[in-house]
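# nightly structure sweep
# worker-07 picked up a monomer target from the shared queue
# config: single-sequence mode, recycle default, output format = structure tokens
# input follows
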Amino acid sequence: MTTISLRHARVRYGPLEALHGVTLAAPGPGLTVLLGRNGSGRTPALRALAGVVPLSGGAVVWDGADVTRLPAHERARRGLCLVPERQAVFGSLTVRENLALAAPSYDDALDAYPQLTALLPRRAGTLSGGEQRMLALSRVLLARARVVLVDEPAQGMSPTVAARTYDLLSGLDACVVVAEQRLPPVLHGRTAVVYELRRGTVVFSGEAAELDPPTGADRTRPSPG
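# output follows
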């Protein structure tokens, strides 16, 4: 079992503060969802957990140890894997080469996403957005990471493939944290920890079942009409 958390975390981009003392905890194995619109702070929260951006205040704690000053590459070496929203694959390499970098045998990746089999000789940069997400996530499956951080995992995917993706992420023996604008329909009724962020602060924390299915992250807004 592993847990990664932010404690009173602050992140600044120049004069602007993106996170205003955010505290959240992601237990594993299990799925934690960070919800919020663009500018809410969900992506900075993921990047802070990964060590890609430094904290201007607060701490990152992994299994009880303060790793705030641990560089991103050291966190990766200890079993943390970040899949950013963009540039998550090596575009100049083929699909086969991308998979081979993750593991000598990539049969599990092709079992998870059979669509990739026909794409093995293609350069990753020529794939559609959804195909690139499949490739990036299949590399995560091969990595056997302890902590998996994914920004919009199902972006560009069909509903069927998106549902399959969340099945795969939920089944990992890892602490999985994903960032989404709205709670994916496939997660309604499932066990998942949810944090909703707005303007760099946490405005809701609880279980996915507590969110209103029709509106997800926008549940506080009145319905149109």
